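Reviewer comment 2.1 asked that we show a complete input and output for one of the modelled complexes. We chose the NAP case, as it is the one discussed in the main text.
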Amino acid sequence: MLKTPAYAANSTKAPLVPFSIERREPRAHEVLIDIHYCGICHSDVHQVSDEWGRGIFPMVPGHEIVGTITRAGDKVAKWKIGDTVGVGCFVDSCRECAACKDGEEQFCEQGATFTYNNYERDGKTPTYGGYSTRIVVNQDYVLRIPDGIPLERAAPLLCAGITTYSPLRHYGVHEGSRTAVVGLGGLGHMAVKLAHAMGAHVSVLSHSPEKRQGALRLGADDFIDTRDAEVFTQHVKRFDFILDTVSAQHDYNTYLGLLRRGGTLVLVGLPKPSPLSPRPLIMGRRQLVGSLIGGIRETQEMLDFCASHNVAADVEVIPIQQLNQAYERLVRGDVRYRFVIDIATLNRG
Ligand code: NAP
Ligand code: ZN
Ligand code: ZN
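Response of the prediction step:
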C-alpha cells in the first residue's frame, strides 16, 4: 500500500485537515497518477456539509483532477508512464448496463462509482478524491489532457467543463441559439465560454451586478441583473435554452417564463428543492430537464473541443493550506471563477 497525504473532513461540516490515506499498488488494468492540481467544485462544499445526505466520513473531496501517470498495471494498453491525464467525477461503473454501453457511465444503472464519498465496486472500500497526492484509477476511466491547455486551467474541465458541455450539446445549442446561463460561478463561466465557442448568442443572468464586465470578457453578449424583478418581464419568451447552474435555492418558475415556446431549461445546480408551478411549463409547452456531468467519451470530446477552441477555466490557484478559507469564499461568491489547489503544496511524505 502507498501511504498518501491528503486533506479530509472528519465529520459533517468539519474543517478540512491533513489526513493520510492508503492507495493500493495499481492492479493489472489500473494506473497510479501523481496529482498536480485539483479544482474545488461547489459539490465538494455540498457534500462536506452533507447537504445531499448519506455522506461517508472521513471524506477526501476532489473530482477535478489532473496529474501524471507514474505506474501502470501490466494489462494497461491505453496509457504509458509520463502521460498527462485527468480524472473526473467517477472512477468506475458496471460496464454492462444500457447506460454504460451507451457511454453514459454517469447514469450507470448499478450506480457509477463516484470519485469520492462513495464505495468501490466491492461495496465497502471508500473512495477518496483529489485533495491528495495520488490516485489509482482503472485505465478506462482516465482522460487525456490535450497539449496546450495549462494544467491548472484544465482541472476544472473535468467537472465544470463537462457538466456544461454535455447539455449544450445534447439540446443542440448552435450558431445563433439564444442561450442564457444562470449563475456565473465555476460551472457558469465554463458554460459562457463553451456556448460562445459553439456560436450561440449568450446572456448571463446573475444576481451579482459586479460580475458584468467579467461576463462580457468571458464571451457573453449581454448581462442581466436578476435582482431587478423587472427583467423577468422585459426578457419574457426570449431564450431557446437556459442553463441553470445556481448552487442556492431559488425560484425556477420565473426563469421558465423567459423561455420561448418549446424552449428548454436545464438544471445542473443541485440546491435544496423549491416549489414548481405547472403553469409556465404548460403555457408554451416548455421543458424542464436536468443533466449530470457526462460520460467518458463525451468528456474526452469536450477536452479536445476546448483545446481546439482555446477554451480553459479561469482559475485562482491556492495552496492546500487555504482550503477552508477557499470554501468560505466560494460560498460567498468571491472567486473568479474556480479555485484550484496546487497539490505540490501538500507534502508528499
Ligand atoms: P459556484 O462556483 O459557487 O457557482 C454558483 C453560482 O450560483 C454563483 O456564482 C452565483 O452566481 C449563483 N448563486 C449563488 N448563490 C445564489 C443565490 N443565493 N441566489 C442566486 N444565485 C446564487 O458553484 P459551481 O461549482 O459552479 O456549482 C454550481 C452547482 O452545480 C452546485 O449546486 C453544484 O453542486 C452543482 N453541480 C452539478 C453537477 C451536475 O452534474 N449536475 C456537476 C457539478 C456541480 P451569480 O453571482 O452570478 O448569481
Ligand atoms: Zn463537480
Ligand atoms: Zn452500468
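The two ends are 14 Å apart (CA to CA). We note this here for comparison with the apo prediction described in Section 3.2.
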